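Deviations from the work plan: none for this task. Representative record:
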Amino acid sequence: MSGEILEIATPDLVTETEPKGDRITVRFVGSAESVTRDDLAAYLTAIHELALETKAVEVVFDLRALEFMSAACLRSMLAWLCELERAPRYVARFVPDGKSHWQRRSLESLASIGGEVVRLG
Amino acid sequence: MIVAKTGTSTSFELSVSPAPTLVASVRRFVAELCGRVLADGDIAARVVVATHELLDNAVRYATQDASRIRVELHHVGDDVGVVIVTKNRLDEDRGRELQRLLDAMQASPDRGAYYRDLMRQAVARLDGPGLGLGRVHAEAGLDLCGRFEEGTVLIRAEGRFAPSKGPPLR
């Protein structure tokens, strides 16, 4: 766990953040329910600031332990992606659970908005 | 709660008090149910996403009382028919906003393009039902319509899918 990031630790969702070299890896564990939306938005803002401070070239989102993400939380992800797209300093790479149908569709949706700053897989 | 299995159909109806935390419990129940009655994980995932977003909207914007949800799964030949209906009380302003959204959704010739527009709009808005319903329409692939009567809104999502023989629900 990093010293700079306040992790999400709700009954539904836990984050594990690992900055290493020019990469920050984020692991989502649990489910991102609507009630977690504000926590997620604040967390993503902190990740963005950390990426800029450390001059990270990539932020990796490991979603293999993510059961579900609500549209309310997808909205927070979208806001962060749009902020990144306005001034691209690093790339966001999503590592999905390869057997999750909803993740495949939702990540394709995010990628369609995120453009060049989003990588899948 | 009523759960019924008749011939080639399975359905259940549930009344949920306005507690957002219960939405996840219902979603997990639906995932469990779909895992038992649908062999196709892709269709099951559509049902789970749609159930979550429709109930989340119903619970979040209900003005009073409980929100109701009914989920029906029908085996129609080789296909699976899905019907999800939510019913809740709603104030007039929200009702008009919802009607405009559903009208625009139905009029859109391209689900993906419409959803991308909704996603871009959602970034500028902290709240509102658009993104969740757009997800039901675009990602779950269900058609949506609404009926508004005397302060009550009934949202119906419906689709028919050919099994893909893909892996089970995840």
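Strands of chain A lie at 13-20, 23-32, 58-69, 91-95, 118-120.
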